[in-house]
Amino acid sequence: MPTLPGPKSLNNHHRDTLAKIFQHPTSHNIEWPDVASLLEAVGTVIEHKEGKIEVRVGSEVRYFDRPRHKDIDVQQVVDLRHLLTNAGYHSGVQARAAEGTED
């Protein structure tokens, strides 16, 4: 089975956005341009008519509506968590968090 690139293969900006997506409690300050940049780095993003955005990460596919404001809403955060978890990115976030807590 091929391995997916983990957070270490992402730049710092992408890793920060990924951490915000998995942060608890849910952050309400995650900007769409940051999310779009992350998604383009880990998968394929195709914008369809009427503002629908198709995101493919590995074998996972999700459709999102372009946010009306600069920040994404809580439901989009939940949907992103599902997409990224199923694509194998959540374990990488947990590993990076564990690395940061060790001395």
Short précis:
It is globular and about 35 Å long. Helix content is 47%, strand content 16%. It has four helices and three strands, in the order H-H-E-E-E-H-H.
Describe the structure.
The chain is an alpha+beta fold and 103 residues long. The protein has a domain at 30-88: Rec A Protein, domain 2 (2-Layer Sandwich), CATH 3.30.250. Helices cover 47% and strands 16% of the residues. β1 (44-47) and β2 (52-57) form a beta hairpin. The longest helix is centred in the last third of the chain and has 13 residues, at 74-86. 20% of the residues are buried. The model is unreliable at 1-5 (pLDDT under 50).
User: What is the structural class?
Assistant: alpha+beta
What is the global morphology? globular
Known CATH architecture of the domain at 30-88: 2-Layer Sandwich
Terminal-residue CA separation: 33 Å
| Low-pLDDT segments, ≥5 res | 1-5
In which range does the helix fraction lie?
40-55%
Cα Rg: 13 Å
* Strand order in space, largest sheet: 1-2-3
**What's the CATH class label of the domain at 30-88?**
Alpha Beta
Q: Quote the average pLDDT.
A: 83
List SSEs in N-to-C order. Answer: HHEEEHH
CATH topology of the domain at 30-88: Rec A Protein, domain 2
**Based on DSSP secondary structure assignment, what is the total number of beta strands?**
3
> The biggest beta sheet, please?
3 strands, antiparallel
Number of helices: 4
Proportion of residues in β-strands: 15-25%
